[in-house]
Specification:
mainly alpha, Arc Repressor Mutant, subunit A, Four Helix Bundle (Hemerythrin (Met), subunit A), 2 domains
Length: 225
């Protein structure tokens, strides 16, 4: 059996090779050879792990292990297993606790690449021609923001939030509440957060994120935090 055949999938490869947050994965050609799969199959796995917050893919730079990815790789942890029983109200309450502080830290720690990725996510969301595409880039914006905060424990906690957002209940609720007008409101909220990060104004970044989550809470549940 060759080395390329010793891993059942990409997630197993990442776990068994003991990658650390911030490490860059080998190029796609090398990964496909190591896993013994076609590059099209590899790309599906890359996209899946990116959606789970395990990977960060940056155009022109490569694919990196996200901070806190170890939590998402361990599906039997209490934090991850609780995802099956939570509900949108809990998610939004938790986001209101965590994400303003994440935005505050991002304003202090984000580098030029982080800011570029945030701006790209905003533009892709603005150009989205479907709910699914908008939601993908909305989630990407928040995922990159967590990465920019450079706090592994906060990132690990956010993995659970991100996983619930990818679930069917959240998806149906979000889709039913989205309209062209609300999408533009969310985009403007993202823009205000990034402007505060560019200005290194951590208090404003925290305040803008709090406002952003409150707007989402009202749109989804009819109340704000």
């Amino acid at each position: 059996m060759t080395h390329a055949q010793t891993f059942s999938n990409l997630q197993a490869y990442i776990r068994e090779e003991d990658f650390s947050p911030g490490d860059r994965l080998p190029p796609e050609r090398d990964l496909a050879l190591r896993l013994g799969i076609a590059r099209t199959a590899l790309r599906r796995q890359l996209s899946q792990l990116e959606n789970q917050g395990i990977l960060i893919r940056q155009v022109g730079r490569g694919t990196f292990i996200a901070y806190g990815a170890s939590a998402a790789l361990c599906a039997d942890t209490p934090l991850i297993s609780h995802m099956a029983t939570t509900y949108p109200g809990e998610v939004l309450e938790t986001r209101l606790i965590l994400e303003p502080q994440i935005a505050r830290l991002a304003a202090q720690r984000a580098n030029a690449s982080d800011i570029e990725s945030l701006q790209q996510a905003i533009q892709k969301g603005r150009d989205a021609d479907s709910y699914e595409t908008f939601e993908k880039w909305d989630a990407t914006f928040h995922r990159v923001l967590v990465q920019a905060a450079r706090n592994g424990l906060l990132t690990a906690l956010y993995q659970s939030i991100d996983a619930v957002r990818a679930g069917k209940i959240w998806g149906r609720l979000k889709e039913s509440s989205l309209s062209p007008e609300s999408m533009q409101v969310y985009i403007r909220g993202h823009e205000a957060i990034v402007e505060a990060i560019i200005d290194r104004d951590s208090a404003r970044a925290e305040r803008e994120m709090r406002s952003h989550i409150n707007v989402a809470t009202y749109n989804l549940l009819g109340s704000s935090g």
